[in-house]
Amino acid sequence: xxxxxxxxxxxxxxxxxxxxxxxxxxxxxxxxxxxxxxxxxxxxxxxxxxxxxxxxxxxxxxxxxxxxxxxxxxxxxxxxxxxxxxxxxxxxxxxxxxxxxxxxxxxxxxxxxxxxxxxxxxxxxxxxxxxxxxxxxxxxxxxxxxxxxxxxxxxxxxxxxxxxxxxxxxxxxxxxxxxxxxxxxxxxxxxxxxxxxxxxxxxxxxxxxxxxxxxxxxxxxxxxxxxxxx
Length: 230
Prior knowledge:
This protein is mainly α. The chain contains six helices and three strands; from the N terminus they run αααβαββαα.
């Protein structure tokens, strides 16, 4: 069924939300989202164990299924599509960063007399859906040297603790790596509208709280090395 809007322009067909076909599609969409969530939780389980095996995969599926059954998560819609080549790029870059960051943190741990300095930066993501916030935060937290401190869901801001900060250029580099991770995730599973958002310049992420200037690092550092990425 279709109609005409103002000015005689023809509108698209009117969809009845209670129609059987619409209900079936909605049900299939919910099951698809649950399966994607289960697959992601199983992947995270294997990464937490540090190696991929059939036992770890089966354990991740059982734990993820139990979490979804007994602790149902709020509905997170998935309006994008999977892109195999972008998924391979996402996985390859993630493994590369994981190995590189692990070596860097290990070198810091064994270097005599060296005290690494850390800072908290605020990064506003360009795609502010719950799914993108969750996936980007998980990908960042799994890489040694970076840790999510807080997530501002309303503004789409991630507050990230970064290790071994020596100057403002390290803050800028950490922010760029986080935005690059978000971009790879969106290119792998995002919708066309979300891909267009990546072309827009990143908005500044002003820190919340009474002090608009900076968030002090975890170790005292000179004034030129402290601050929240603006």
